[in-house]
Amino acid sequence: MVKIAVLSDVHGNATALEAVLADARAQQVDEYWTVGDMTVRGPESERVLSLLDTVAPTAYVLGNHEENYQKVLTANPNTFTKPKQVMATVLTAFDRRQLSPEHFERCLNLPMTVTKQVGPLTIRLQHVLPTVASGHALAPTASQANFDEATTGDVDIVIYAHTHTPIMRYGTGGKLILNAGTVGLPTALNPNLRQPRANYLVLTIDASGLQQIDYRSVDFDWKQAITIAHQAHLPYVEFYEQTLRTNAYQYAPSAVAAYNTQHDMAQEARKILLENRR
Ligand SMILES: [Mn+2]
Question: Ligand 1 mean position to 207 CA, how many Å?
């Protein structure tokens, strides 16, 4: 029997990750898998990756935020100017200043998918689709066709991430689809389902198959997480703070666009991109 913790969307929130790792230890987890977006948005991407090193995850896959690291390194300053691209540029630069060269390099070289064989089960990890690490294809209410596209290939279970919404459903033909939710930025559409707790998943698998799926919600000191963000002079700190305070998603393109205008972020992003190209 093996107990596997599935962690996704930590987003640089080391405070939440510490609480989750303590809970996983108490659950006597044997192995850790991650499903992308370990960094970016929160203040402590380096501490997140160092904490993860202490449990040595056996799977890392590319999230859209790690993918943005790659994009920002080679982006054209004249065209990489959409509101979220400006934010990605500034947040990538913030992370790059704190990340060790080894950690940054690892983020730049993540695979799109990792496939694991555990007992009788073939399990594939992917941030969104097998070949796409971003976008809304697997929003919780997306069409079944999208979930069928997510489960192509010779797999029994697909675990994805990105939506910050815990999910258990099926592809046509019975492939199981799981989403562990989010460790670092808990949000929900329904106000009554919002809660300031870190989500992750513990899978228990033995020779007969999947014995238990445990969706865990763990309390963490979100006020302390906000304090750390302010102390670190995190860019876009208002978005991070409001997400942790309200558990409602704050990073809509229109809101980011307004913030960019107000704080002249396009100028800062342009400076960063020009420096990257030198
Ligand atoms: Mn994502």
Answer: 32
Q: What is the CATH number of the domain that holds 130?
A: 3.60.21.10
- The residue segments making up the domain with residue 68 are 1-274
State the distance from the centre of ligand 1 to the C-alpha of 254, rounded, in angstroms. Answer: 18
Sheet with 209-219, strands from edge to edge, namely 31-34, 2-7, 197-206, 209-219
Q: How far apart are CA 45 and CA 107, in angstroms?
A: 11
Task: Render pLDDT for 8-45 as a digit per residue (tens, 0 to 9).
Answer: 999 999 999 999 999 999 999 999 999 999 999 999 99
**Tell me: the pLDDT tens digits for 115-161?**
999 999 999 999 999 999 999 999 999 999 999 999 999 999 999 99
Measure 9 CA to ligand 1 centroid, in angstroms: 6
Task: Tell me how far the alpha carbon of residue 206 lies from the centroid of ligand 1, in angstroms.
Answer: 30
Its pTM stands at 0.97
Residue 47 has a CB neighbour count (10 Å cut-off) of: 18
